[in-house]
Amino acid sequence: MAKLADAHGLGPCGETLGGSSPLIRTKYMNSVIEKQEDGTIILNITIPSKIVKDATEIVLEEVVKSADVAGFRKGKAPKKIVQEKVNKEKVKEEVLKKLLPQAYAQAVKDHSIKPIINPRIHVELLEDDKDWKFTASTCEAPQVDLNGYKENIKKITAKAKIIIPGKEPFGVAQDKEKETNFEEIMTELQKSVSIKVSKIIVEQEVERLLAQTLDEIKKLGLTLDQYLASTQKAVEDLKKEYEVKATNDIKLEFALSKIAEEEKIIVGENEIEDAIKNAKDENERKGLEANKYLLASIIRQQKTLDFLKKL
């Protein structure tokens, strides 16, 4: 059933991605919240059997309206006959599609949380004439403590501003600044800040990295086994490697966002338009045009990185 639930396409706050459903009486649904030390939030949600029954009736009415039964005009067959022929598991799946997003959205509202990722759904109980139960795992944006990062990074950037006697000051300073070890700055930032990253967001990023790797392997005409043999790694080694990368990348992303917030680093509409105009081709331009929010985030992150290099 977990696989079935994963297909419902829930957004972070419970909106249905790519569709909509008739509203059910979600105020009667129950949920208990559990917050783990790493920031993972688990919502234990119960949908009363009465609500399940009402939603099932709605689904069956929809099925009857579109049913094509021999001896009857389309949508005119008696409900009882349609019920006898309909796939009960398919009906249950459709009911779940209606109830899951609304139950999750209600739980999010009831507990006043602000999820930043789509929930991971696991169905616990899905039986006839019983309350349905499922868990939704998600997380909010983590708390970020920058811990006086500026002084630590200044120790690194200061080396780029040293003027060597007998050389052209401007030229040397400029060259040295270009040679500043960017990776060193990022490493220092990661060491300076304190962030608790939820395991669920790390797991989702690891899955994304693995899927990306598999796509690249297929393009090379290799199988996963061939790739692993060539790199002398096992699947578990690859997962551990990606887990470290994912954790560091996520920490860095939230640290940069916090710095941008504290330093009031913003992105103007003109910067977004300039980036779109400078797209390498028409396809890229259309992609940027359709994702201005993401583009603004990328520009803001780059401006934050430039800010760090100038400390």
Describe the structure in your own words:
This protein has 311 residues and is α+β, with helices and mostly antiparallel strands. Among the domains are: 2-139, 2-Layer Sandwich (Alpha-Beta Plaits); 264-311, no CATH class. Helices cover 57% and strands 10% of the residues. It contains 13 helices and six strands. The chain has helices at residues 2-6, 49-66, 79-85, 88-110, 149-157, 169-178, 182-192, 199-219, 224-231, 235-262, 269-277, 282-290, 292-309, and strands spanning 30-35, 40-47, 120-125, 132-139, 144-145, 194-195. The strands form two sheets. A four-stranded antiparallel beta sheet has the order 1-2-4-3. A two-stranded antiparallel sheet has the order 5-6. The longest helix is centred in the last third of the chain and has 28 residues, at 235-262.
Mean pLDDT: 82
Give the overall silhouette: elongated
The fraction of residues assigned to DSSP E strands is 5-15%
Largest sheet: 4 strands, antiparallel
Ends distance: 53 Å
**What is the CATH fold-level name of the domain at 2-139?**
Alpha-Beta Plaits
Number of helices: 13
Q: Radius of gyration, Cα only, in angstroms? A: 26 Å
Task: State the helical fraction.
Answer: 55-70%
What's the CATH H-level homologous superfamily of the domain at 2-139? Trigger factor ribosome-binding domain
Total count of strands: 6
The CATH class of the domain at 2-139, by name, is Alpha Beta
**CATH architecture level-2 label of the domain at 2-139:** 2-Layer Sandwich
